[in-house]
Amino acid sequence: MSVLHNKVSNRELKAAARQDTTPRTTISFYKYFDIANPQEFRDNLYRQFVSIGVLGRVYIATEGINAQISVPTANVQQLKDVISNAAPELAGIRLNFAIEESAPSFWVLRMKVREKIVADGITDPTFSVTNTGEYLKAGEVNQMIADPDTLFVDMRNHYEYEVGHFEGAIAVPSNTFSEQLPMALDILADKKDHNIVMYCTGGIRCEKATAYLKHNGFDNVYHVEGGIIEYVRRAKEQGLDIKFKGKNFVFDERMGERITDDVLAACHQCGQPCDNHYNCANDNCHQLFIQCDSCRAAYDGCCSAQCVEIAKLPEATKRELRKGADNGSRIFATNSATAQPVASNA
Fold it and tell me: What is the pTM of this model?
């Protein structure tokens, strides 16, 4: 049986994606539902996605599917058919279309079977992800945000909140969703008499978060249908005021979709207003951080002077430096409004 995964190097795939002029559409979707055999489900869907030119990132688990993908625009209807026919629960599923297509979003298709489609750290066997809060459509979101007794809670990572969020939203400052859930309970412990609206990028995290709050005794819990992506799309279609300010961080090559002209963040190196995320050009570091154009030129796309020097070293020397180093995800954490040159342990 053939191996159902990509065999071409990332470098070749990236080069091909940059040269390809085929119009593509970036789409995300998710669904919590029972999948008895995630590997078989994954392999069947992989074959069909490859046949219509899908690229992107897809996670499948016994609790459902979570996908961020790109498809040739001419094949969008075929994609809808493939997804709807993959399982009865996916028939007519809502697809979140990207707000802007400023650059290629993906260059390869990666589909993985995981324990959960969103790692949550929940071990309580009585927890059910199906007992969720109520969906809010765009107009209802705007009504709720005007209510002083309603709290909006951002269930994204701190670096996502930093560049854009709903007006007056509460941040739950963490790098992981599993850390956020108990933190949200602590923050909201004395707010059970308030309406609580949770939101995230496409809806998958906040939907599970509302179920977690309800599991812990909260009653008046809501979440933004389709997350920020669907809210903005519908608000624009309906001519509504857009209450989300700044940029919506996305987990693909674009790293962000401009929602409003508001720039809420600052360059992590000089402190000037900026909301452009990059990964450090030193592959031994690869830290995610915000960098303005001036600092990008001055630091050659690196997060520190140290990384500038390391990036210039021969590849063999850099490989030696990587040995034994922690090469996990590195994210700039800002603790104050004063930006300092970013330290690196590359």
Answer: 0.80
